[in-house]
Amino acid sequence: MKKINVLILLLISSVSSAQEILTLGECYDLAEENYPLASQITLLEEKTARELEVIQKDYLPKIDVNAKASYQSDVTEIPIDFGGQSFESVDKDQYRATLDVEQLIFNGGKINSRSDLKELELQAQAQEVRVTLYQIKKRINKYYFSILQLGEQMDLLDSKRDVLSERVDELESQVKYGTALPASEDVLKAEILKVKQQQDELESQLHSALNSLSAYIAKPVDTSTVLELPQQRMFIHNEGSRPETELFKLKEEELDQNKKLLSKNLFPNIYGFAQGGYGKPGYNFLDNSFQDFYMVGVKLNWNVFDWGKVKEQKKSLDISKELIDAERETFNFNNNIELEEANRNIVKIQNMLVKDREIIALREGIVETANSHLNNGIITPSEYLTEFNNLYEAKINQQLHEIDLEMAKANYKVIKGSTEK
């Protein structure tokens, strides 16, 4: 006998260990990792890395190979006789091949500014993706808590069916001994069938919700998976951290970096250059033979007057910054309204739960009395069933409200951007 008990315990423990426990926080993380949009962040990082590499190549020397062959209708001649000496005219066919090298020496830090701007653009674009991913949390809340509510309803219907079955057995005994009419038990049997219908409908809804949650988190979720009901504390006065707030900040930093780059565009560019080549003629146009040649030097390129273009571009960026400020204010305004509504919803559900407990206590007393009256033939099964259904309706309402409360808290945290678990 002891061996059988031990075996049963081992079987129970193995079944319970096979059940996977899934938390709301884990669902958030899995959804953000596996949602198709999440791959954009990696792609943006790869794209920016290549663009930064291209920008940094501006530090490398620019090397050009040029070749030219030409024939011209006329050439410069020197029609002067220097004591019987004459100068040979340049041939009309001319040839030249050169290697030109240009190296940036100074550009006022424009390359580094462009790199910094590209980095900020990446951060802003990635944050836009995170803002979109953050919205998934509301959908996860919907499916996660729907599954919990459907499971609680099914459990309560199981309990209701068990109690009704016990009442049927009692009535069958009474019918057998002639203390109750045969039709009495049929009323309760019909109610049991109705409960089974309700369970079938709930089971269909449960599978639908499980499939939706599974699709979002890219992980199988079925009836064997245990979803943990979070017991969440409220942090009404704590500051939140919505991803939109960081996005506004990054957009402003991007505009500031744009202004810095515009200022640097006013700086001169200084290059070192070298040219080596071979051709006819070379740098000496009086020598009509093929010859090699070279030149080295430094050049400066400076747009000293841009007709106020940079100034106007900076004004445009300032306006863009004001637009971001307006977006931030609008977001905060709407977010505060959502928070107030969410908080009122929490208070409403808490008050409903207080009433639920009072109603259940009263209903349990009424059903206990009705059960005694039914057994003594004072009331009919239909009258008993009315009070019995009222009790289970109250219990279901309480369970739904308890889960509604945790869902309302979860939604409040999503709206606020709270990272507290």
Low-confidence stretches: 1-17
User: What is the top-level CATH class?
Assistant: Mainly Alpha
CATH H-level name... which superfamily?
Outer membrane efflux proteins (OEP)
Given the helix and strand composition, which structural class is it?
A: alpha+beta
The largest beta-sheet arranges its strands as 2-3-5-6
State the helicity in percent bands.
55-70%
Number of helices: 9
Radius of gyration over C-alpha positions, nearest whole angstrom:
42 Å
Give a concise summary.
Pfam families: OEP. This protein has 421 residues and is of the alpha+beta class.
Task: Walk me through this protein's architecture.
There is one protein chain. The chain is α+β, with helices and mostly antiparallel strands and 421 residues long. The chain has one domain: Outer membrane efflux proteins (OEP) (Up-down Bundle), CATH 1.20.1600.10. The chain is built from nine helices and six strands; from the N terminus they run H-E-H-H-E-E-H-H-H-E-H-E-E-H-H. The strands form two sheets. The chain has a four-stranded antiparallel sheet, with no helix packed on it. Helix 3 (39-56) runs antiparallel to helix 4 (110-134). The two termini are 46 Å apart. Mean pLDDT is 87; it is low at 1-17.
Please give a handful of descriptors for the protein shown.
421 residues; Outer membrane efflux proteins (OEP); four-stranded antiparallel sheet; 6 strands; alpha+beta; 9 helices; two-stranded parallel sheet
